[in-house]
Design goal:
There is one protein chain. The protein starts with a helix and ends with a strand. Strand 1, helix 3 and strand 2 form a beta-alpha-beta unit. The protein has a 7-stranded mixed β-sheet with strand order 3-2-1-4-5-7-6, sandwiched between helices. The model has no long low-confidence stretch (mean pLDDT 93). The protein has one domain: Vaccinia Virus protein VP39 (Rossmann fold, 3-Layer(aba) Sandwich). The chain is globular and about 55 Å long. The chain contains 10 helices and 7 strands. The longest helix has 14 residues. By secondary structure, it is an alpha/beta fold.
């Protein structure tokens, strides 16, 4: 991580922990990983996926470069080994894990450097899995149309840095380090937040957290959002491949 948007997560670690969605455990059912295996959560943040992995696998290590995020992870998932480090410099030995997970983090990696590092720490036939949450556009959003539209405008303007990037399935296929990439699968789940939670969730996203006018932006969005509890349709996605 090396620019302001990536580093901005450390200043909103509490909001990230309190309002980011979790990941459905059923998503892991698609993976050929035994419960007694050793797995790595890479770019683990506050441990949103780490705690799901810890409930499934015997040995879980989390690597997170940002100190405030990692401190929360250590508090909420105390049985997990949490290490400073990055996808580009993983502080583990060669062939030390059966699975590597990147949840909501793969787009931050320098993929040309990170993918060989991931392959290095995987055992033969080890699994690399990319997991991420996104809104489920096939279901109605309970929030006001004007609010959703304004959030989308802000999001799309900030995401232009990635608009020409290839699909992650293609990245894994083309790098030559993994076998056949398994088609994307997903599990739908609701992300339930009240009005303050939604606004804190917005504070936790990099494209708002990194702005100097972030509180003005959040105030403007809040004016479009009535007090209520909202069950926002969400989709947890998974793609995975075995190491060659």
């Amino acid at each position: 991580m090396n620019d302001r948007r990536e580093l901005s997560f450390d200043s909103v670690a509490d909001e990230y922990e309190q309002t980011r969605p979790t990941y459905p455990p059923a998503l892991l059912d698609a993976l050929p990983l035994d419960a007694d295996g050793a797995v790595l959560d890479l770019g683990a943040g506050t441990g949103k996926l780490t705690r799901v992995l810890a409930a499934r696998y015997r040995d879980v290590t989390a690597v997170e470069p940002l100190a405030n995020m990692r401190a929360i992870l250590e508090r909420v998932v105390p049985g997990v080994t949490a290490l400073p480090g990055s996808a580009e410099r993983i502080p583990l030995d060669d062939g030390s894990v059966d699975g590597v997970f990147a949840a909501q983090a793969f787009h931050w990696f320098d993929q040309r450097v990170a993918l060989p590092e991931i392959a290095r720490v995987l055992r033969p036939d080890g699994v690399f899995a990319i997991i991420w949450n996104q809104g489920d556009d096939d279901l109605p959003d309970p929030r006001p149309v004007e609010f959703v539209r304004e959030v989308k405008v802000l999001h799309d303007a900030a995401q232009r840095r990635w608009e020409d990037e290839p699909e992650w399935e293609d990245v894994l296929r083309d790098c030559g380090l993994f076998e056949a990439v398994h088609d994307r699968s997903f599990v739908t789940h609701d992300h339930v937040l009240d009005r303050p939670g939604i606004l804190d969730n917005l504070r936790s996203v990099s494209w708002i957290a990194s702005r100097e006018d972030r509180e003005d932006v959040v105030w403007r969005l809040g004016a479009l959002l009535p007090e209520a509890t909202y069950a926002i349709p969400n989709r947890a996605n998974l793609i995975w491949a075995r190491k060659r």
